[in-house]
Write a structure and sequence with these properties.
The complex is a heterodimer of chains A (328) and B (94). Chain A is mainly α. Chain A has helices at 20-30, 43-62, 64-68, 77-102, 108-116, 133-154, 160-188, 192-211, 223-228, 236-254, 279-289, 293-306, 308-327, and strands at residues 264-266, 271-273. Classes of the chains: A mainly alpha (328), B alpha+beta (94). The complex binds fe (ii) ion (2 copies).
Chain lengths: 328, 94
Amino acid sequence: MYAQMVKSTGTLMSREDMSPQEAAFQDRVDAGDKIEPQDWMPEGYRKTLIRQIGQHAHSEIVGQLPEGNWITRAPTLERKQILIAKVQDEAGHGLYLYCAAETLGVSRDELTEDLLAGRMKYSSIFNYPTLTWADIGAVGWLVDGAAIMNQVPLQRTSYGPYARAMVRICKEESFHQRQGYSIMMKMVNGTPEQREMAQDALNRFWYPSLMMFGPSDKDSVHSAQSMAWKIKMNSNDELRQKFVDQTVPQAEYLGLTVPDPELRWNEEKGGYDFSEPDWDEFYQVLRGNGPCNAERIGARQKAWDDGAWVREGLMAHAEKHARRVAAE
Amino acid sequence: MSNEWPLWEIFIRGQNGLSHRHVGSLHAPDAEMAVKNARDVYSRRNEGVSIWVVKSADITASVPGEKGPMFEPSQSKIYRHPTFYEIPDDVGHM
Ligand SMILES: [Fe+2]
Ligand SMILES: [Fe+2]
């Protein structure tokens, strides 16, 4: 997802191994109680959350880059305004999430430095390029669509500040997906070339979107503890299946073909059978070898370096002003 | 990093007649910039008509460990609620 393969600290702890404090904590989580920043929490819970929320925040921010790429080239002024608003929302999402992570005792600068040094990750999906205008449609439709699938249940996560950030984010996401789908509708009803661009965008974004949910359940070693803590609400395969079931009819409506010859409706399970993405590619992208990894981190590094004088200058101004007021 | 912009808590009045409500936090060098940033971060969709910003460091909170002595005493004082008193139906609405 926006937070893929977040390492949970340790394997699932059994009741017998818990200290009285840990057991009381688990009871609260089981009862649906929200954990707030000042409450006692196991160190593993805190650390896992910092990694997960931090990775989610980084994804929102890095996710602005592939879409920002098309702001200057949007086909109409209206589409340009819409895209700017969408990308601005993603900046907001990043900020809500950084603030949630900060309540766990990590600073914004530390998180940014961890990202730039490669100690923290962002979602694999943003390492793919946006080559045509149809890609902006596909990103809104598929990538935001996949994100919604994961973020809706996270509104019920056990950590209060994370849950509240998710509520705000979910309110804004639906616009993102719909504006993407509306671009796709426009493209498929355009010239044969525009139709072809829409199909090409679906071809390239289909499997990377499926990868967003993370590896298959049998290969995701960190899930059990995170699920017990209610910081992961559904299994990867469960969400991926839901996403496919929701998206295939939408592709059919557009008259586009999902690039999977194995795709077919399975009456018995009440869902589609579909091919797994190429997991080797997924691990390669995570390791930094995707088509745009270097470009994305390069852009973040440049923004961080170029912005340094602004951060320092405004702080110096604020301090000077405060001193002057105090002296009066 | 010591020179990080301080954290501010943001409160927004949704519409006149309602209280300001805590909506989240953000970093800004000073109060004026905190208001400007709050407008962009927390009111992109008509969420408010007024914004308050307070430095997080200036907030004093009750201690979670003292939740018991702090809040439990009021639990036993059920006579503070109107339902404690039984008024016969004959009296009518009260
Ligand atoms: Fe987002
Ligand atoms: Fe979005």
